[in-house]
Design goal:
The complex is a heterodimer of chains A (165) and B (293).
Chain A: E1 7-13, E2 16-22, H1 28-35, E3 54-57, E4 60-63, E5 76-78, H2 92-99, H3 109-122, H4 128-134, H5 146-162
Parallel strand pairs in A: 1-5
Antiparallel strand pairs in A: 1-2, 3-4, 3-5
Chain B: E1 7-9, H1 14-24, E2 28-31, H2 37-42, E3 50-53, E4 63-66, E5 70-74, H3 79-84, H4 86-91, H5 93-100, H6 105-110, H7 113-118, H8 127-132, E6 136-141, E7 144-149, H9 150-153, E8 154-156, E9 159-160, E10 167-173, E11 180-187, E12 198-206, E13 213-221, E14 228-229, H10 231-237, H11 244-257, H12 268-292
Helix pairs in contact in B: 10-11, 11-12
The chains are: A alpha+beta (165), B alpha+beta (293).
């Protein structure tokens, strides 16, 4: 099929509006990384198996490697760059991942943290099994997951104590 | 891994979607969750020229329940909504179980219940309990609507009864009968994101005495080209009070009816054994649940 010129589409990413030129076939992960320039979202398997490309759409975790960017118009997209506050202070989940050594190479971390955030937003006091279940779609090849689960438990405590969102 | 170029449409009503489908025929694909479709497209097994995204059609989404009538689930309803729905959990627990076990939270957030049946993978999770529950599908086209049991809709590996220009609109689940219960279980290589080696759903209705089996359906997934209804298990247990010996016999019968293939997820021999294990476990568990219902 003949390639039509790109069309301008409005995307709301991390509470900012972007006018992005794209083709209908363009996947959200590529648009966020290449057109918008937010490279925190990682591309792993490209088949929805590894979870590295996880972003939040209207607060729910989705695989941006299997999502058309054009279908995200009118929705709130959150990437890892949207978690720190305006002063650059890290979100309690990000702090907990750092403090608990839940990051090694860091490639799975953005997706892992966003999947964790979706969990804590729905269930602020998850038990260990609930954390494992919520992160079952995110693969990590470094840490062995134990520290990741510990980090989410620690962040849950901080959030419940301090009331941070 | 790129998708081929296509023209994108996001119709707002069923009529708009059906008009597009009618106009473009097999050059179009319907986009529901995309978790299966885009994989096929990335592998260049499918290269549609037109993409009809049905996610903005409110008429195809959501779960409703009418006491005495049963439940209706829109085809574009996300798996995660089925998993979280209180009525589904209370009245159709077997479907709740299967929805909870599908993929990962990301996949469940994206994938739809209609897509899971239309994709017609022999290893799919939700068709197994839906067939056990006696679900019907409603198909829309420009020339009208038709209904059929889901058991007749899924014809085989990646084959359905959908005709050109037709869309799956919703599932209709009959009201659960008194003294009934349904349960689901699976065997896979890991606890999430696996493709089932075997899955199974059992639905049992008891007589007034709450002991004798009035009706029983055992459905197996991933061991035949489509959800497989065990006639022998129904014949063995209907009119009886199941006991361990009878359940063992039924489990053997189910295993004999299964026609699995050997692949990366398990050998045919292993799957035959696992059918026995799941049948034994599920028949006992479902019978106990029905007695307490």
């Amino acid at each position: 099929m003949e390639m039509k010129p790109k069309q301008l589409v409005t995307l709301n990413i991390n509470e900012r509006t972007y006018e992005v030129p794209l083709h209908p076939r363009d996947l959200l992960v590529d648009v966020v990384r290449k057109e918008v320039g937010l490279t925190g979202t990682k591309k792993g398997c490209g088949q929805g198996d590894c979870g590295a490309c996880t972003v939040l759409i209207d607060g729910e975790p989705v695989l941006s490697c299997l999502t058309l960017a054009i279908a995200c118009q009118g929705k709130k997209i959150t990437t890892i760059e949207g978690l720190a506050d305006a002063k650059g202070e890290l979100h309690p989940l990000q702090q907990a991942y750092v403090q608990h050594g839940a990051i090694q190479c860091g490639y799975c971390t953005p997706g892992m943290i966003l999947a964790s955030k979706a969990l804590l937003d729905r269930n602020p006091r998850p038990d260990t099994e609930e954390i494992k279940r919520a992160l079952a779609g995110n693969l990590c090849r470094c840490t062995g997951y134990k520290r990741i689960v510990e980090a989410v438990e620690a962040a849950s405590e901080t959030i419940n104590k301090e009331g941070v969102k | 891994m790129f998708l081929n170029n296509f023209e994108y449409f996001a119709p707002q009503t069923p009529e708009e979607a059906l008009t597009l489908l009618d106009r473009f025929g097999d050059k179009a694909k319907v986009l529901a969750g995309g978790t299966d479709l885009f994989l096929l497209m990335k592998d260049k097994l499918l290269q549609p020229e037109y993409m009809i995204d049905i996610n903005q059609i409110t008429g195809f989404k959501g779960i409703s329940y009418e006491p005495g009538q049963g439940a209706t689930i829109g085809a574009a309803t996300k798996i995660v909504e089925v998993e979280r729905d209180a009525i589904i959990r209370e009245k159709y627990y077997v479907l709740h179980q299967a929805a909870s076990e599908l993929g990962s939270v990301q996949v469940r957030t994206m994938a739809t219940i209609g897509g899971n049946s239309c994709n017609a993978s022999p290893a799919a999770e939700t068709p197994t309990p839906l067939v056990a529950l006696g679900a019907k599908v409603v198909l829309h086209s420009l020339s009208g609507k038709r209904e059929m049991p889901l058991a007749e809709f899924i014809l085989g590996n990646r084959k359905t009864a959908l005709k050109p220009g037709e869309l799956l609109a919703c599932f209709i689940l009959p009201e659960p009968l008194p003294r009934s219960a349904g349960r689901y279980a699976y065997i896979g290589l890991r606890e999430a994101m696996e493709i089932d080696a075997v899955n199974m759903a059992v639905y049992i209705v008891l007589e007034d005495d709450s002991r004798t089996v009035k009706d029983l359906r055992l459905i197996m997934g991933s061991v035949a080209p489509r959800p497989l209804f065990s006639r022998e298990v129904s014949a063995l247990l209907t009119g009886k009070e199941p006991n361990p010996a009878l359940i063992e016999k039924a489990a053997e019968a189910a295993s004999g009816e299964a026609s699995p293939i050997s692949d990366i997820r398990g050998s045919a021999e292993y799957r035959h054994e696992m059918v026995k294990v799941l049948a034994r476990r599920l028949l006992q568990e479902t019978y106990t649940a029905a007695k307490e219902a």
